[in-house]
Amino acid sequence: MRYLNYLLLAIVLGVMQGCFPIVAAGVGAGALISSDRRTAGIILEDQNIESKALNQINVQYKDTVYVNITSFNRRVLITGQVPNEKAKADIEKIVTSLTNVKTVHNELQISSLTDLSWRSNDALITSNIKLRFLNNSRGFQPEHVKIVTENSSVFLLGLVYHKEAEAAADIASSSRGVERVVKVFEYLD
Question: Which residues share a beta bridge with 78?
Fold first, then answer.
């Protein structure tokens, strides 16, 4: 009987082993959502805004523009490069027309599209700032601030207190490779 119990335990553990990554991912996502100041519904809405905007922009402009859409608490940041003022205005109009968008910050640059080396540099800048946020002792939680880097300009988004915004901006502005920092925060105080 004892042998049978051990055998059943081994079988159950073997079967459940494949479930661990799914359970762990679910727990991790739950932890991130619980530390986010946005509700789960707003987080989902932000994802929908980003997806809908990019789909509409891609239909109209295909490969002639490089655009990033970042929505945080329904405040949308548009970054990237476009060939002319008309494209910049059209893209802003597309985003503004989406349901539930509160405000739009259009930071599109009229220029040629950045190449992979520029985008890699931007990713490196973002990673460096995130690491510095994790090592900060200035009284804010890194998960409350979203970082977007475009062409060495750093945009900071989030639901924060003024003190947190200043600390985040100070860390970002003193990071290597950063040319400017733009605060696109929504303030809680």
Answer: 69, 106
Residue whose token pair is 């105080």: 189
- Tell the residue number behind the tokens 């639901």, with chain if given: 159
Say yes or no: 102 and 121 in one domain. no
- Domain CATH number, residue 95: 3.30.1340.30
- pLDDT per residue as tens digits for the range 88-98: 999 999 999 99
Query: Is there a single domain that holds both residue 187 and residue 130?
Result: yes
* Number of domains making up the chain: 2
SS3 content of the chain, % helix, strand, coil (to 5): 55, 25, 25
Predicted TM-score (pTM) of this structure? 0.81
Of the three residues 64, 81, 113, the one that is the final residue of a domain is 113
Exposure on the CB side of residue 23, measured as CA atoms within 13 A: 5
Per-residue pLDDT tens over the stretch 59-114:
999 889 999 999 999 999 999 999 999 999 999 999 999 999 999 999 999 999 99
Are 61 and 87 in contact, with CB atoms under 8 Å apart?
Answer: yes
Q: Which of 112, 117, 97, 120 is nearest to 63 (CA)?
A: 112
